[in-house]
Design goal:
Elements lengths: L4 H7 L13 H9 L13 H11 L6 E3 L6 E3 L17 E7 L5 H10 L1 E4 L2 E4 L2 E5 L5 H14 L4 E4 L3 H11 L5 E5 L4 H11 L3 E4 L3 H13 L5 E4 L5 H17 L10 E3 L5 H13 L4 E4 L4 H14 L13 E4 L8 E5 L2 H14 L3 E6 L6 H6 L5 H10 L2 H4 L4 E4 L7 H7 L4 E4 L7 H7 L5
Parallel strand pairs: 3-6, 3-12, 6-7, 7-8, 8-9, 9-10, 11-12, 14-15, 16-17
Antiparallel strand pairs: 1-2, 4-5, 13-15
Helix pairs in contact: 1-2, 4-5, 5-6, 6-7, 9-10, 10-11, 12-17, 14-16
Bound molecules: iron/sulfur cluster.
Length: 446
Amino acid sequence: MALTGLEIYKLLPKTNCKECGFPTCLAFAMKLAQKGTELANCPYVDEEAKAALDAASAPPIRLVAIGGGERRFEVGNETVLFRHEKTFFHPPGLVVRLRDDDPALAEQATRIDAYEVERVGIKIMLDGIAVDNVSGDAATFAKAVATVKGVSALPLVLISDDPAAVEAALAVAGGDRPLICAATTDTWQKMAELAKGAGCPLVIRADDLESLAALAHDVQGLGVEDIVLDPGTRDLAGNLAVFTQLRRLALKKNFRPLGFPIIAFAGAATREEQALLAASAVAKYAGVIVLDELDPSVIYPLMTLRQNVYTDPQKPIQMEPKLYPVGAVTDKSPIFVTTNFSLTYFTVSGEIEASGVPVWLVVADGDGLSVLTSWAAGKFDAEKIAKTVTSYGMADKVSHRKLVLPGYVAALSGEVEEELPGWQVIVGPREAVDIPSFLKTVWKAD
Ligand code: SF4
């Protein structure tokens, strides 16, 4: 359980030397209890006190790294139930499951490895490959793992209930910290020994939370700290209920035995069910999500959802405010004004590109917010627009004096014309999707 300020104070040197930046040890202790400072800021804490404080200040959900190379990913260490309370930190790893008896294993793994999309200027890829020991044979499993490793450096999840098969697979992939999946009440000792020996994270699976907590305690007793929880649910309602319970127990009750990331299995009879299961797991509260196939119509929306949910709401993904010429612009090209919210920029510039009409895109600093939000927040007003147009030297770049404002801020037209004497403001479309038809039917330079 977390320590109170007074409990922490009892473990401090009580010299009030101020080196931590606080006037007294008590003030430092109170701040530490609120997680507003770090223990390392006091150079005089003795080892015993440090151990006690470290244990108490450990994150309520352990940070677990999966994989060993450049594409390793980390999950856990979340601190809130709801994203708007602060932010979610570690996006769930999206992993595609392959059968160890699949004759096209190498081709499938190559496709998974190469899958990449770009959204709002950010490249997004899959995070791992799960190899499932459906053959039930240790040698086949190890061979499949070797095949996958031969074509991909993605982190692996080794799915097998058979310790002998896991041992054989670890002989091939053990150095890369694959996630072993899973130890059960029958196999936990052997699986924990294997995980400990190879330094790998370990999934533990049980059908009720009490057994899961007991299992976590048991494998920790054998020295395995990097644990991932599988509460055994495989349906939407079950996942939602149990994952939420696990998150609440970890964060609200500080219940350490279940303070670990969760693995979700999104395999389902239909593509739609798989998408639903995985989307629910992205939102609440999986750390690893195992999909049964590489279907871009499911995976791309999931990646979009994950990017949205795991973007800090206080730090939207932004573009640098500047002039972006889209296409081969000339002095006759229209000037569009927008804000520096990445999604807005990429949507608007995408539609301009699709129209085939080159456009000077003036991106003003709207604090990374969309047009309507930044206008409502007073960050995107007539003065800002006029200053931006002037500072980018637009009057020297075009022979006309026309400015296209986003339709959502049509109300600013008059004020912008007052701020920019000699310029005519044209109200553009509200939605980016209408830009091509606007450019064809409304825009005229002369
Ligand atoms: Fe107390 Fe340590 Fe801060 Fe000094 S540095 S005031 S000993 S908490």
